[in-house]
């Protein structure tokens, strides 16, 4: 299994887990968020070493998108969300 295939598989698995968690928060709880954070990071690193250009593009774009949705946006919202 080459690194491009690993990257795309990490993207698809993390996308499925994050989507399932998004619609039902109690489904996986903390383990889903760990998967939604770690798999895109692994996928981005694997995509950087991929030889196939299309798998590299899918891996980088897809894993980056999941990482932004699962980590960056929630983190930025905590910086600007002020509760009294």
- Based on secondary structure, the structural category is mainly alpha
User: How are helices and strands ordered from N to C?
Assistant: HHH
Proportion of residues in helical segments: over 70%
Cα separation of the termini: 52 Å
Tally of DSSP β-strands: 0
SS strand fraction: under 5%
Radius of gyration over all CA atoms, rounded? 14 Å
Q: Count of helices?
A: 3
Sheet of most strands:
none
Oligomer: single chain
Nearest-integer average pLDDT: 85
Uncertain parts: none
Q: What general form does the structure show? A: elongated
Defining key terms:
84 residues; mainly alpha
What's this model, at a glance?
This protein is mostly helical. The protein is built from three helices and no strands. The mean pLDDT is 85.
Please give a structural write-up.
The protein has 84 residues and is mostly helical. It starts with a helix and ends with a helix. Helix 1 packs antiparallel against helix 2 and helix 1 runs parallel beside helix 3. The protein contains three helices and no strands. The protein is elongated.
Task: Detail the topology: elements first, then pairings.
Blueprint: H1 3-23, H2 30-48, H3 53-80
Helix pairs in contact: 1-2, 1-3, 2-3
């Amino acid at each position: 299994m080459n690194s491009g295939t690993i990257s795309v598989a990490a993207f698809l698995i993390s996308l499925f887990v994050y989507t399932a968690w998004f619609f039902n928060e109690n489904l996986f709880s903390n383990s889903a968020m760990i998967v939604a954070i770690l798999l895109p990071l692994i996928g981005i690193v694997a995509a950087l070493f991929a030889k196939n250009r299309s798998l590299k593009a899918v891996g980088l774009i897809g894993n980056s998108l999941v990482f932004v949705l699962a980590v960056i946006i929630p983190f930025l919202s905590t910086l600007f969300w002020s509760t009294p």
